[in-house]
Amino acid sequence: MCGIFGYIGKIPAEHQKAAFAFLTQLAIETQRRGNHAAGFAALDKNGAISGLKYAGPMTDLIKYESMFKELAKELPDIFIGHTRWATTGPASIPKNNHPFYQDDWTIVHNGHISGWYGLAQKHKFKMESDTDSEVIVHLLASEKNHIQGVKKVFHECDTTDWGGFSVAAIQESQKRLHLFRNDAYPMVIFHVPAWNTLWFASVQEIVFDAMEKKGFTEDFQIKDLSSYLLLTIDLDLTNRQARIADKPVKKAALPTKVCSSVVTAKTQMVKAAESRLKQWTEAEWREFYEWMYNKQNYEKDKNPIEKK
Predict the structure, then answer these.
(1) pLDDT-derived band of residue 258, with 50, 70 and 90 as boundaries?
(2) Coil, strand or helix: which one is 172?
(3) What would the pLDDT profile of 205-257 be if each residue is shown by its tens digit?
(4) CATH superfamily of 3-307
(5) Buried b (16+ CB within 10 A) or exposed e, 235-267
(6) Roughly what angle, to the nearest 10 degrees, separates helices 204-213 and 16-30?
(7) Which residues on adjacent β-strands are paired with residue 103?
(8) Cα–Cα dist 36/18, whole Å
(9) Is-contact 175 235, C-beta < 8 A?
(10) How far is CA 166 from CA 79, 133, 213, 289, 299, in A?
(11) What secondary structure letter does DSSP report for 261?
């Protein structure tokens, strides 16, 4: 279990301070889904990608890494972040952490691709890490257009044993954000009109906790992202949906209901959650992963990996 979060949009100057404070809190709250490692990537005003892979929790990245602090001076047009609960590939080695890059693509991934090594061999991918998530960015880059690339991810990863994913991907040349997932892992999206942004996160609880702690007062719209649909968003927030797999689409892909109160929205979320199956606790996830993978100790270079 990992956490992903971020946004797309040109944030007005008068809202940048509040938006950066909220982004920081959203990153901190997302750490509850994984504290082994952290990372982020950003597309700046000039259309250039930069990023950081960090062998430590998100709170330390925020505290110690100047690359994140520099964002406060001028927020990027697209930001994707990741907090990692390590499964394949030890988190103490930065190359195994998110984001992952290949050609025009930069991704963060929540989930697990158990057949990743076989996929890498099958397609002769040159893997730079020991992490299952990297195979997704290679699959995207192996096709000529984004729809075919995402379809390939679903075809290959959704059919492997216990393949699960929710993915946020930046397409650098097009200055676009692509969001997609299968049924195994969640993602929510929320629109903040005053900030001219569309945001995403792993679950609603994290969003509402970040909003409450930062005294969020803007109107917003929030919704679960549909599974088996690709949501593509341009910088002007023009968006398109594409059906990716021959699976039932159960939920609306775009937010529709306007929320003017975080407390009201959170209350509605809690009531809806009461009807769901009990989610695994952090201890249950840890027990499962320790059973699935033998725990090993790695003592290697822990310096962060920057991309500029």
Answers:
(1) confident
(2) coil
(3) 999 999 999 999 999 999 999 999 999 999 999 988 888 876 766 555 566 66
(4) Aminohydrolase, N-terminal nucleophile (Ntn) domain (3.60.20.10)
(5) beeebeeeebbeeeeeeebebeeebeebeebbe
(6) 130
(7) none
(8) 28
(9) yes
(10) 16, 11, 26, 19, 30
(11) -
Q: Tell which residue, 150, 106, 109, has the closest CA to residue 243.
A: 150
Asked whether the bond before 193 is cis by omega within 30 degrees of 0, the reply is no
Per-residue tokens: 134? 């990297």
Measure Cα distances from 219 to 196, 257, 262, 267, 287 in Å. 12, 10, 9, 16, 40
pTM for the full predicted model: 0.86
Cα–Cα distances (Å) from 135 to 23, 55, 102, 165, 170, in that order, read 28, 20, 10, 12, 16
Locate all alpha helices (DSSP H) within 231-296, ordered by sequence. Answer: 262-273, 282-292
- The token duo for 1 is 């279990």
- The one-letter amino acid code at 124 reads K
